[in-house]
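Retry 2 of 3 after timeout on previous attempt. Resubmitting structure tokens to design endpoint.
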């Protein structure tokens, strides 16, 4: 007669719970914050517009080193 594998069941349950938590937190990271995106004319002359997954960013043409 075989003993039940409770250790395997625990690992399966913990993995499932971990995946659910990661999935739930990941969805809220990409939600729209309701911010109004600036128009191209409103950007400073010393930056360039870079598009990425989370929207657009103004990157300085001549960045300064931060110590």
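Retry 2 succeeded. Sequence:
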């Amino acid at each position: 007669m075989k003993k039940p594998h409770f250790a395997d069941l625990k690992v399966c349950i913990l993995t499932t719970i971990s995946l659910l938590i990661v999935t739930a937190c990941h969805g809220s990271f990409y939600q729209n914050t309701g911010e109004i995106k600036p128009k191209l004319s409103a950007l400073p002359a010393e930056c360039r517009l870079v598009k990425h997954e989370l929207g657009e960013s103004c990157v300085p043409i001549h960045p300064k080193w931060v110590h």
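Attempt log closed. The first strand starts at residue 47 and ends at 52.
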